[in-house]
Amino acid sequence: MRAAVRQRSSENLGLLSWLEQTAADVVCLQETRANDDQVADALAPALADGWHLASAQPHLKGRSGVAILSRTQFEDVRIGLPATEFENHGRYIEVDLPGGATVASVYVHTGEAGTDRQLEKERFMAALTARMADLAADNRDAVLCGDWNIAHTENDIKAWKANVRKAGFLPAERQWLTELLESGWVDVVRRQHPDQPGPYSWWSWRGKAFDNDVGWRIDYHLANPTLADRALSARVEKPGAYALRWSDHAPVTVEFGD
């Protein structure tokens, strides 16, 4: 996140400039890779402009970290997935907003097929499933936004044939997302853009991936059905050119009606 603040800042194209211009009421951030004080310091201009911040710092320096910015004060903040090994990993934070909605910022790490890192990813996925079941049972409007590091279908990754055995497109990961959707959660962006490739939200910095739109759609808004039915639009704010990028991800913005 601090890199996104610095990136293109001299050209007024970084994260802080985006926050000045966006009409969003809530912004979820992932991979802040900073402690809470460092996050607040990096976002100080935005906080001075009236944004409210909740953050969950990583347990290991330079990894993970999630945060939520809101134009209104939070009614409650909950960090981590309680009673799991991920309670203090900086991969999950949720807030209650005035009006009764819960918003969560989620970071599912990349993983690596056939390694302990992949097993850890799968344990986090299981813990997240349990939390999402609790949210669904509460009958509150809720949306979980973030970097899930899983492309669900062939329409969510341009070079899917080259990635069928790699983390991020493994059958078990894709099935996990399928089961979340079958349990009632709605992939809001896909509902707004059915039966088409993309819109991708991540592109490698290497080669011509960005220019040729060889991307992945791994940044999701999963909402409960009542809230999802109020979605008016969903878009990926892809920069117009490689030179205008301030992250390897692009913001994914969903507009909900009252």
Explain how this protein is built.
This protein has 258 residues and is α+β, with helices and mostly antiparallel strands. It has a domain at 108-239: Deoxyribonuclease I, Chain A (4-Layer Sandwich), CATH 3.60.10.10. Helix content is 26%, strand content 21%. It has eight helices and eleven strands. The strands form three sheets. Strands 4-5-6-7-9-8 form a six-stranded mixed β-sheet. The two termini are 30 Å apart. The mean pLDDT is 95.
Short description:
With 258 residues, the protein is α+β, with helices and mostly antiparallel strands. It has 8 helices and 11 strands.
Strand fraction equals 15-25%
CATH superfamily caption of one domain: Endonuclease/exonuclease/phosphatase
CATH class of one domain: Alpha Beta
The outline comes out as globular
Number of distinct beta strands = 11
**Residues in helix, %:** 25-40%
Order of helices and strands: HHEHHEEEEEHEHEHEHEE
Report the span from N to C terminus.
30 Å
Essential attributes:
258 residues, alpha+beta, Deoxyribonuclease I, Chain A, 6-stranded mixed beta sheet, 3-stranded antiparallel beta sheet, 26% helix
Give a topology summary.
Blueprint: H1 2-6, H2 15-21, E1 26-30, H3 36-42, H4 44-48, E2 52-56, E3 66-70, E4 76-79, E5 92-96, E6 102-107, H5 116-137, E7 142-147, H6 171-182, E8 186-187, H7 188-192, E9 219-223, H8 225-228, E10 231-236, E11 252-256
Parallel strand pairs: 6-7
Antiparallel strand pairs: 1-3, 2-3, 4-5, 5-6, 7-9, 8-9, 10-11
